[in-house]
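$ fold --in a.seq
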Amino acid sequence: MFHERIVCAYLYSITKYGYPPKAELTERYLEEMQSLGFSSVELEGIREEHLMTVYEYRHRIADKIKKLGLAVPYFCVVLPGLSSLDEREREKQLALFERGCEIAQLFGARGVLDNAPLPPYQFPADIPVVRHYNEEVLTSAFLPHDVRWENIWAALVETYAHACDIAAKYGLSYHMHPAEGLLASSTDAYLYFHDAVKRDNLRFTLDTANQFVIRDNLSLSIMRLKDHVDYIHISDNGGKKVEHLAIGDGRIRWDIFFETLNRVGFKGHLGLDIGGDESAVPDLDGAYLAAAEWLQREYLNT
């Protein structure tokens, strides 16, 4: 089995089965990730229906985790509605967030993870069910004319501070994941948001591919965020579009990246986050196996 710090991210199952993959088949996903040799895995609850299905199956899933000898250090609670302009919707999303924290605690997680806040855009229909709010998706979005930024910001800060307090009640940290089109997705933006929220358990999940494509220097990010990062999503990127490539298929300088991690004394988890329909990964299993073997050989055994 691979080192427990190497995590098979949920993107593995998403790439195989679509977004979101059926929550009622989570036990199968666990078996597949364990069969590749992973002892640590990531799971997700994606919006209300998917999250509540995981909640319904939570005890069966927890039993499966134990039976397979797995660890789930982080559980993703994906709730873009937390940044809604509607106070009642935010309250509903916070209630769902608490269900996610219950799941995470049952699974033995250290923290919960979500994308950084989505600006309170309005779309022709509901918020699109997509992993990345790229330029194509955002072209149909707009901000209402009658809102003020000061009010948007105050609501965001209050909501995420409340979410941090809920997570803390369950002994969890709350991790912001960077992605194109979101607030608090760069090093500077996250630090600004963290200073406003004022909660010690608010953390940042560094994502090598997503930050590389927005020109957020990875080594400088590691140095500036060394006290804020416990979990890193690892995949390569060519620098021109959002994609999560196999290690070595992009332009990230991994020698510099890991030298910097060693320099700051990083001891957290490394989540292999390869794939997605935006990425050319013809051999998914091979990409995950090669990346895990490479991490274990070149980084964790040094």
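$ fold --in b.seq
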Amino acid sequence: MVDIFLCDDKQVLLDSYEEIITAYIQQNILDAQVRLKTKNGYDLLIFLQESQTQGGVYFLDIDLENDVLDGMELALKIRELDPYAQIVFVSTHDELLMETIQRRINVLNFILKDRGLAQVRADIQATINDAITLRQQQVPLAEEPAHFEYDDGLSFEKVAIQEINYFETAYKARHVFLHSDHRLSEFVGKIVTIQAQLPQFFRAHKSILVNPDKVVRIDKETHQVIFANGDTCDVSYRRIEALLKLIQADKC
């Protein structure tokens, strides 16, 4: 999961950037999220100290009028906490681009606010793609867990990842069904939390998280995923092609 951070002294711009980024993530099924938006650079630094985020993407205004730190100083402090940080400046001051070079602030992009909303939107979307690619190349990948652990209220359970077909939001609020080769289990949890724990799983639907390694067939007409034991689940028509590509890539 790639965490994205926004810092600008204008709330209307923060809201606009968040809308652009969130919509793009959802439309393209990207493994990313807007983790924090703030008008205060120090709030961002405190969050980084507490969360120990690595490989974040930071969209920063250079001229933070109501902050002791300007955007460049903030970028340098972010790098101290997050060495893999991808810095993006969003500013009206194109003359400051040279200063970022002189101060040796390695930036991923310099987006000009005054180029119009359509161009800013396109620049932000392209930057997110670049940032995700770089993050995958730079940040050491954590070893994938061999088991998934949960508490069903009666006992503590451990299930091998290779036995799990998919997770599904249960009818009861804040509960999740776990569909494995041999059983159906229910426990307190959220799909988004499980997705963060198991990044190799695929969000096939807003309420379904699929283990791509267990998929044997995808029915494009009925929008169904079929597993070896006969289990089936829905897949959003917008996400079928992405799931097919993922499965094909794993088999190469």
